[in-house]
Design goal:
single chain; 79 residues; alpha+beta; two-stranded antiparallel sheet; 3 helices
């Protein structure tokens, strides 16, 4: 557990050991999430990858619902 202080401008400093552990570097973007009253910080790049993966799964499921024969499978495999 780390204790950090918020500046008058709303800024916080992420301790060096935490930055190293999570490979957070100058210029990295972080996403602040409110999950049932708990604030979470995640690297934006990790969040983007997770969203991209979820989006691709949703696309695959949508196509699976409308494409149901071998000819459609060939088109899908080529994509």
């Amino acid at each position: 557990m780390e204790l950090i202080k918020v500046s008058s401008r709303g800024q916080i400093v992420i301790p060096e050991d935490v930055r190293k552990k999570y490979d957070i570097n100058q210029g990295d973007k972080l996403v602040l999430l409110d999950k049932n009253g708990v604030l979470l910080l995640k690297k934006a790049s990790d969040t983007e990858r997770a969203l991209r993966k979820e989006w691709l799964l949703a696309v695959e499921q949508s196509f699976a619902e409308v494409w149901d024969n071998e000819e459609d499978d060939k088109v899908w495999d080529n994509a």
